[in-house]
Design a protein that fits this description.
This protein is 72% helix and 5% strand. By secondary structure, it is mainly alpha-helical. It has a two-stranded antiparallel sheet. A hairpin with a 2-residue loop joins strand 1 (128-131) and strand 2 (134-137).
């Protein structure tokens, strides 16, 4: 719906307007998201203020009614704070999972990158052999001291 409206507003006759159209569509969508958030906040504020008044309109004493409305408002605000905390926890969990996945991807990328490279550490490890309690270069090991592994 919004794309059609912006196409109508800008017009698609000129191909040079394509970049302008994309930028305008993005700006219009953010504007609509902002308006929706403001409307939601207004609805929440109205509900916190008006719902307790509607719930306890039958209480005859003004002092008792004010006390009960304040208690209900406190409960509603606490519930909204709890929902906000749960939403924050969900976003944090998602961010943590995405960062874990990114680290894993980076590790695989680096490992694949290093598969084709020969480093000095690799050359050292190939040229050395662990014998009893120390590293010994392969050239100094006599054939009799090597393990007799099948070829």
């Amino acid at each position: 719906m919004i794309d059609w409206l912006i196409d109508w507003w800008i017009g698609r006759r000129n191909p040079r307007r394509r970049y302008r159209r994309k930028r305008t569509v993005r700006a219009a969508k953010w504007l609509l998201v902002g308006i929706a958030i403001l409307a939601l906040l207004g609805l929440i504020l109205w509900a916190v203020w008006r719902v307790p008044q509607l719930l306890y309109a039958y209480v005859p004493d003004a002092k008792d009614r004010a006390t009960v409305e304040a208690t209900t408002r406190s409960g509603l605000i606490a519930a909204l704070a709890g929902l906000a905390a749960l939403g924050s926890l969900a976003v944090t969990n998602r961010t943590y999972r995405l960062s874990q996945q990114g680290q894993l991807t980076d590790r695989y990328s680096k490992a694949i990158e290093q598969l084709g490279q020969r480093s000095s550490t690799f050359d050292w490890a190939v040229s050395m052999r662990w014998n009893a309690s120390r590293w010994i270069p392969n050239e100094t090991i006599r054939p009799s001291s090597r393990s007799s592994a099948p070829s």
